[in-house]
């Protein structure tokens, strides 16, 4: 009964306690304590800062009742807008350590956190940590705090999951913290303005999930041999995950980048990835074929490529096909085109014959899906080049509709899907084998 009750959310826990006196006895031994300022003070997020004193009183009263008990989870969600919170937050962290808490959450971001300077963040009390009490922590979420590990810091020996959000710290300090989390399995660093290289020298042999979002980094390098998933959203930068031999999935979203520079960087940093999703917001295409590049994605089988084509780059669409030369074992290819309306049926740019004798075969490619096909020469040449050099192709889908992002049609203009569709059907009819399942939408 104790275990079942401990898994209920607070509202259901309270309702269930009404059923019988036998169930009510579990109220005093609940191992999960979650304090949300909005719920505790019964107010909205924007006015929560006016109720800080009440929140402190309520939390202290409940923690006093649980003194000496083992608390599996402690969550505190309150706007950090008053310095009066510092003393109490330190006490609550100390309580969590004494209560052998496994899961600790400090979510302190204000409703209008963009207007608050770093100086207003709560400094996490590393001085309260000791080897015995810290050993129980397995999961931790820190939001709107400052990390300044002391010289006595020896790491979180059993921490498996760590989420850092809006944290103020130097990249060196975060790297130092992570280097001493030897059992870390899951890591997310979200909107931490680091402005530096994040290099973690210590081996994270248990890390299987890594996500980095909007952190203003200049370099990312981890020694994580068992990493399975990598997610990145931000500006273009070197990524060093060469030791991640078991990398199954990488989802890369870049604000801007020159296409062939991005590809070379990924070849150097993620050579062992199996499934790759690549988005570049402001994509710059140059006439670079990467003909003599010795680097290869040695295990890549699935590629999702989002091509945001703008301006004169429509002339260089075909150049993007050079990425396939570095993927000898590609099986599934998705290319989602997005661009300006006047790119439809554009008859500009090189043709596939310009490759000369540099053609390569995609012997393992079975499925090809292209969306946003508007009949531009580069799109058509890209399509025909791949089909002509994919002897194992089984399914081909060409979709003239926009499937990625939102395209804004000028007033009075209608998408000319019909012409693009007819062009695809006519061009493919003479080269596609009868064994291929063809769909033109």
Automatic annotation (TrEMBL):
InterPro entries, A to Z: At1g61320/At1g61330-like, LRR_At1g61320_AtMIF1, LRR_dom_sf
Pfam families: LRR_At1g61320_AtMIF1
Leader sequence residues: none
Domain At1g61320/AtMIF1 LRR positions: 62-407
Protein name, as recorded: At1g61320/AtMIF1 LRR domain-containing protein
Species lineage: Eukaryota, Viridiplantae, Streptophyta, Embryophyta, Tracheophyta
């Amino acid at each position: 009964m104790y275990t079942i009750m401990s898994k209920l959310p607070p509202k259901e826990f309270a309702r269930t306690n009404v059923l019988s006196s036998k169930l009510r006895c579990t109220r005093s031994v609940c191992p999960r304590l979650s304090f949300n300022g909005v719920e505790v003070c019964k107010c909205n997020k924007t006015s929560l800062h006016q109720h800080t004193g009440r929140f402190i009183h309520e939390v202290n009263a409940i923690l006093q009742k649980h003194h000496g008990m083992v608390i599996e989870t402690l969550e505190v969600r309150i706007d950090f807008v008053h310095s009066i919170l510092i003393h109490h937050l330190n006490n609550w962290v100390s309580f969590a350590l004494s209560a052998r808490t496994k899961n600790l959450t400090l979510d302190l971001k204000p409703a209008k956190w963009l207007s608050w300077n770093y100086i207003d963040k709560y400094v996490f009390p590393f001085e309260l940590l000791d080897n015995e009490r810290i050993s129980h922590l397995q999961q931790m979420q820190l939001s709107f705090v400052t990390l300044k590990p002391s010289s006595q810091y020896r790491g979180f020996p059993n921490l498996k999951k760590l989420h850092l959000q809006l944290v103020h710290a130097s990249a060196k300090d975060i790297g130092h913290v992570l280097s001493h989390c030897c059992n870390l399995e899951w890591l997310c660093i979200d909107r931490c303005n680091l402005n530096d290289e994040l290099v973690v020298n210590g081996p994270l042999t248990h890390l299987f999930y890594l996500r980095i979002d909007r952190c203003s980094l200049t370099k990312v390098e981890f020694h994580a041999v068992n990493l399975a998933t990598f997610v990145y959203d931000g500006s273009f930068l070197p990524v060093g995950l060469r030791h991640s031999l078991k990398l199954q999935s990488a989802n890369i979203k870049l604000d801007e980048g020159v296409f062939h520079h991005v590809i070379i960087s990924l070849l150097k940093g993620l050579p062992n990835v199996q499934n790759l999703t690549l988005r570049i917001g402001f994509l710059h295409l140059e006439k670079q074929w990467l003909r003599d590049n010795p680097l290869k994605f040695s295990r890549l089988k699935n590629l999702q490529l989002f091509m945001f084509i703008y301006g004169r780059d429509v002339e260089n669409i075909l150049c993007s096909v050079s990425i396939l030369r570095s993927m000898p074992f590609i099986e599934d290819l998705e290319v989602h085109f997005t661009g300006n309306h006047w790119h439809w049926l554009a008859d500009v740019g090189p043709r596939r014959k310009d490759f000369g004798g540099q053609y390569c075969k995609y012997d393992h490619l079975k499925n090809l899906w292209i969306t946003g096909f508007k009949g531009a020469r580069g799109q058509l040449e890209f399509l025909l080049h791949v089909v002509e050099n994919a002897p194992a192709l089984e399914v081909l889908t060409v979709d003239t509709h926009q499937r990625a992002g939102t395209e804004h049609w000028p007033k009075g203009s209608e998408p000319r899907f019909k012409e693009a569709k007819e062009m695809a059907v006519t061009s493919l009819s003479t080269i596609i084998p009868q064994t291929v399942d063809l769909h033109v939408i």
